Structures are given as C-alpha cells and as structure tokens.
C-alpha cells in the first residue's frame, strides 16, 4: 500500500509538470514510484535546459540592472515562467534581492513554475516575511504540490512558521506530495505536539484525506505513531482499521 501511495503522489506531481489532468496518467499507477520520480525529473531537466544559452545570457545581463528595476521588469515583462527558468542561473545574492522585491502573488506564480533543486541556495535565504506571504498565497490557491516541493529547501524555523499558517487538511495534502518523504517525521517534529492528533482527527472527518493521513503514518517513527494509539477509537470504522494496521 505504501508503494501505491508513493506512485499516486508521483502521478500528481508528474501531471503538474506535463500540465495535464492527473486522471490522464492513471495508467502509470503500477509503475514504481522511484521510476516515476526519475522520469519527472528528466522531463523537468529537459524543460529547464531548453534554450539554456539564451537564459544564461539573460542572467548575465541581469547583473547590470539595479535590483528594483530588475524586479519591475520581471513582473511586467518576463513573467513567472521565464523568471523560474532564469532563477537558478543568477547569483544567489542577486536572486534573493530580487525575490524579496516581488509581489507575493507574482512570486507564488514563479514558485509554481520553479524547479527548487536549481535555486535551493536562493530559496533558503529568502526573508521569512516573504516566505510566509508566498506560502499563504499558495495555500489560498490550494497549491499543495508547490508547497510540498519547497519544504526541503527551507530552514527549519521558516518551515515551522509557515506550517503554522496551513490548516490541518492542507498540511496532510502537502505531506502527501512532499518530495522527500524521509523528512516527514522530522517535519512533524517541528509542529506543536497536539497538532499530530489534530491531523488524524481532520482525516477522520473527510474520507478524501484518509490516504494522505495513512501515508503520513507510514513515514512516522514508531515512537511518534504510538502516541496516536489512544485516539484511534474515535475514528470512523474503516479509517480506524486501516490506521491500526499501519501503526502496528
């Protein structure tokens, strides 16, 4: 079942990259999740490396402009897709300077198009207030995939503050599409102790959240899972049985 969860999450993320409805990719459900991830990253690399020489020249030219001017050009001329393509090619300090000048709504659009692997150094240095504003914008759009892709590139204090602003159903959906599932237990550890129980309660109230919650349980440490045992009795029958089987 864990493999099924992982493949489903990868299909959602691959559909985003290909800009198609995820239902069109359901035939890939039996493909190993690691293979789907490798394919997704290959597609992403192909998209980002297209016209790389032109993008590199644009990144070099950007050094000549003041940050405030470049930010205006980014929003009014380049647009989010081109900004996302260039982000990994500019100097880190310049990238951070421009990012903090962009409107959170526009920066959220850039984030949705960005490959965080290519701009990790910039992402990790963006001011907290900017990150929180962008996270709120993405949450309003229910863009859980983009939020999930950035968790692994932000410092823990920033992740903690950002997750405070995400409701429990949203947090479950983010965890389901998190790029590095090995970090789930660590990320949950950044939450207040009572929050984990709330996540289980939220899942019990919405059957669409059962699978994200069960997937979350599979990635928690045995010690953390054991703290949830007293809560299982209050869950709906079908969900309780599956949660019990996962926690054992």
Please name the defining characteristics of this protein.
248 residues; mainly alpha
Describe the structure.
There is one protein chain. It is built from 16 helices and no strands. By secondary structure, the protein is an all-alpha fold.
In short:
By secondary structure, the protein is an all-alpha fold. The chain is built from 16 helices and no strands.
Number of helical segments? 16
Straight-line distance between termini:
14 Å
Class by helix and strand content?
A: mainly alpha
Q: Averaged pLDDT, please?
A: 93
Approximately how much beta-strand content do the residues carry? Answer: under 5%
Describe the largest sheet.
Answer: none
**Pattern of helices and strands:** HHHHHHHHHHHHHHHH
Helix content: 55-70%
Layout of secondary structure:
Layout lengths: L1 H17 L14 H17 L2 H11 L4 H21 L4 H8 L4 H10 L6 H4 L4 H13 L3 H7 L5 H9 L3 H9 L7 H6 L3 H12 L5 H9 L3 H5 L10 H11 L1
């Amino acid at each position: 079942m864990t493999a099924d969860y992982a493949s489903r999450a990868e299909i959602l993320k691959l559909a985003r990259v290909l800009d198609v409805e995820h239902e069109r990719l359901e035939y890939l459900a039996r493909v190993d999740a690691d293979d789907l991830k490798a394919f997704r990253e290959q597609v992403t690399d192909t998209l980002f490396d297209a016209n790389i020489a032109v993008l590199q020249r644009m990144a070099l030219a950007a050094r000549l402009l003041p940050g405030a001017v470049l930010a205006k050009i980014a929003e009014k001329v380049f647009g989010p897709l081109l900004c996302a393509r260039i982000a990994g090619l500019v100097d880190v300090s310049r990238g951070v300077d421009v990012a903090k000048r962009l409107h959170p709504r526009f920066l959220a659009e850039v984030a949705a198009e960005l490959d965080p692997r290519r701009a990790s150094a910039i992402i990790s240095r963006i001011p907290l207030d900017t990150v929180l504003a962008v996270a709120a914008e993405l949450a309003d759009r229910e863009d859980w995939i983009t939020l999930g892709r950035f968790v692994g590139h932000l410092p823990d204090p920033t992740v903690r503050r950002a997750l405070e602003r995400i409701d429990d159903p949203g947090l479950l959906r983010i965890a389901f599409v998190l790029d590095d599932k090995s970090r789930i237990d660590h990320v949950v550890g950044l939450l207040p102790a009572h929050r984990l129980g709330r996540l289980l309660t939220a899942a019990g109230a919405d059957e669409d959240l059962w699978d994200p919650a069960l997937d979350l349980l599979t990635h928690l440490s045995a010690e953390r899972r054991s703290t949830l045992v007293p809560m299982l009795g209050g869950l709906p029958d079908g969900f309780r049985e599956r949660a019990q089987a996962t926690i054992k």
